[in-house]
Structures are given as C-alpha cells and as structure tokens.
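check this one:
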Amino acid sequence: MEFSISDIFVENPGSIHCRYKDEKDIFKYVQSKVEVIRKFVNELNEEYIDIVYAIYPIEFAANQLLKYANVLSWEHFEYVLQSFEEIFPMRCPKEGSFVAYKSAEVWEVGGKIPLDVLVTLEVPEDAKRSSAFTNKCRCSKARVLSINGLRYPNTRSKYDQAYSNYHLHLKYKKGEMIYPDKFDENRWNECSNGIHFFMTKEEAIQYANRRKPFTRQLIKAQSEIDNAREENKQ
C-alpha cells in the first residue's frame, strides 16, 4: 500500500469546524478522506476484508465522516452517503430469502460452562436487512434452521435451543422465527438493533473465536444482577 492506516484518521467535526471556517474547505477535507478510504478498501485483499475486525480503522473513520452532517450542506453530505454506498456494498442480498449464520451459545453443566454453537438461519423474503462497513449484517427476523456445536469433538452435536452471546434473554429455538426487540433501519449503525449474522459459516466461526472469553461471563453476571433487581422491584 502507498499509504498507512494513519492516513485514514479523521478528526472530529468540532475540530474541523474550528480549523476551516468555509464549508468548501471542510468539504475538500471530507472528500480527501472519502477517497483515501475508497483506495484503502480497494487495495485490501479479499482474505483481509473477510476478517471482521480487520477494517476497524476504516469503520471508525467512516463513522466520523457520517457525523459531519452538522457541518456540511445536504448536497455535500449526500456525496458522503453515495460514496459509502459504492465503497461498502451490501454484504447480504437486498431481496429474497437466503440462508445465513451466526454464533450463539448453550450452557452446559448446570449453566456454568458456555459452549459456542453455530446457528443456521433462514432470513425470509419480507425481512428487513442491512450491513455497514464490515461483513456483519443485521435483519428484522429469521427462522432457526439448525444449531450445532463448534469447537470441541464432544460438542459437535445438535441442539434444540441456544442463547444470544450478548442478550441472554434472546433465545434461538430450532424451527421458530426469532425477532429482535426492534430493528434499526439506519444501515450505517452496524452494532445496533437487529438479528446479527454473517453470510458464511467461516465468518460466524471466526467471530466466535475472536470474542474475549471473559465477555460471556460478564454478560451472564450482569444479566443475573438485572434479574435480581427486577425481582426486588416487584
């Protein structure tokens, strides 16, 4: 590459607004950063892009540029949105039904040992769907086709239900349609409301392997605390 990740760094809108008083100068800065992002993404090979967290610097920079709505005219901000549509095409089909994958977990030995599982989903034709800057996608509903163990030989069995890695109240039951609490229709809000998924098994497994082991324990502990609080209120 002819440039480094530091070239992608985007200053916050407040700093830029103080430095450039003329909107034309602000737009030139935004334009230059959009083109750097475009070149960087184009030069990334397919294997690198497939790694969920590999393009985090790009995601951060792009999100910063989306915050420039309050210092740009609509015409100029629309340029940013249209450019992102070209640079980051939807990772999932825009229409029709399709099969997708996600990681979840089951709790063995009295709920003390979390085991990662692979959940195979069918996203129906009428489901809303989106993706942002990485290969992770979201949808408004999906049917659970199967749940299989991931990591260890003795866990490569089939399960009837599993739980979300981050929201333990969300249960995936084989054969049933699942719904999030709501669906965020802004496609650029990647980690927002919706059923998160990937288009390939490999990406879902990779995502599961990259999550910090203690995260699940903290989430489970926080869930137990929240439940206790709710019980005390009643």
Notes: Residues 47-54 have pLDDT under 50 and may be disordered. The chain has seven helices and nine strands.
